[in-house]
Amino acid sequence: MSKTISGFSKLSKSKKIDWIVDTYFSNKEDAKHIIKQYWNSNDKLQQLHDEFIENTITNYYLPLGVAPNFLINGTSYTIPMAIEESSVVAAASKAAKFWYDRGGFKAEVLSTTKIGQVHFIYNGKTETLKKYFDSVKSKLIADTESLTKNMQKRGGGILDIELRDKTKDIKGYYQLHATFETLDAMGANFINSCLEQFAKTFKSEAHHFELFTSEEKNIQIVMSILSNYVPNCLVRAEVSCKIEELSDDKKVSSEEFATKFLQAVNIAEVEPYRAVTHNKGIMNGIDAVVLATGNDFRAVEAGVHAYASRNGRYSSLTHAKIENGIFTFWIEIPLALGTVGGLTNLHPLVKLSLEMLHKPSAKELMKIVAVAGLAQNFAALRSLTTTGIQEGHMKMHLMNILNQFEATDNEKIILVDHFKTNVVTHHAVVEAINKLRNKKLN
Ligand code: MEV
């Protein structure tokens, strides 16, 4: 059977579902039931979600959890996290509480500029292009006035445009490399609109530049787009305490804990295989808050990993040191976030999450997200260098296994209690369920 279809996007939602179900499922009723089960009974709310993207057939739920007891620059926060991985929220909450009792997190925004580029091809003398750029630069900015007026009023806008010669990499390749301040907006739409206007002006004005030959007048715009690499939109978060305050576990001394912790961070600094997993753990915290607050986690991921490779080798985003008996652990990451525009005014749970965070500015949200990443990494390294990761991880995963076996509420109570003192493995849980069920039968 052919599985291509034309005009799919024009079908009604129910016709789309019919086609999907008829084409791909043997148990059609079952498939339809699963799809419809996730529809929201509030039609308006459902329509809102339907219209976020094209071809919506249903909603895909992620749990929205909260991690309380974060102290950041002296203010208490409960951080909302949208994530499916069972141990992440528990780990964040544990790290938050641990550092609450030791003075909390300190965070500061180091810079806030974003980048956009018009990529173009020009075959001619570089010197003449530079003269053209100098002569047209003020018009590039003037022509975006209607786009930048509001942003400028609030103190943001276009900061600068540079001409960059990239002909060493690709014949005839140059860029208009622009920097922007977008304040509380993530700024993608603003930046892209400005860039597309730059491109239009830059191309059309070239025809009137007297020093260009007729070939030079023909500037070819390749594309205009913001960069998700934002090394000048940086935030730093840190925790510190006296070494002797570090361990709250009688089995491990504070000194031993600090030494091993530092070794783990050092390994992630020099060993890319470890650094990727180390940073993945950081992104568990970061993505969950980025998603809960309606921000673009793909943009954040791309930018953060590029930053982790900025010195030519993929490396840790966090660092640690011990100086004069003080343990310090910190993160420095680029984050382009918004607290206005995009989903922030649309998605009810995003609005709720932002309100829970005291309606932060973009700068405040940068600090909160960086802290969530640092806390997550602290929790992971703490487990990894002491008990190992599986103990906590499997405890949290227990509920997933119980649900897989459709355990009743009563069975869950008994088995969760049983595994408080027994090691959780998939095999052990299955065995315990079977034993319990057999007992009931006898
Ligand atoms: C699992 O999602 C994340 C960890 O692997 C992170 C780490 O190894 O640091 C636990």
TrEMBL record:
Belongs to the HMG-CoA reductase family. The lineage of its organism: Bacteria, Pseudomonadati, Bacteroidota, Flavobacteriia, Flavobacteriales. It catalyses: (R)-mevalonate + 2 NAD(+) + CoA = (3S)-3-hydroxy-3-methylglutaryl-CoA + 2 NADH + 2 H(+). GO terms for biological process: coenzyme A metabolic process. Pfam families: HMG-CoA_red (PF00368). It is an enzyme of class 1 (oxidoreductase). Keywords: NAD, Oxidoreductase. InterPro entries: HMG_CoA_Rdtase (IPR002202), HMG_CoA_Rdtase_bac-typ (IPR004553), HMG_CoA_Rdtase_cat_sf (IPR023074), HMG_CoA_Rdtase_NAD(P)-bd_sf (IPR009023), HMG_CoA_Rdtase_sub-bd_dom_sf (IPR009029). This is 3-hydroxy-3-methylglutaryl coenzyme A reductase. Pathway: Metabolic intermediate metabolism; (R)-mevalonate degradation; (S)-3-hydroxy-3-methylglutaryl-CoA from (R)-mevalonate: step 1/1. Its EC number is 1.1.1.88. GO terms for molecular function: hydroxymethylglutaryl-CoA reductase (NADH) activity; hydroxymethylglutaryl-CoA reductase (NADPH) activity. The keyword NAD applies. It comes from Aquaticitalea lipolytica.
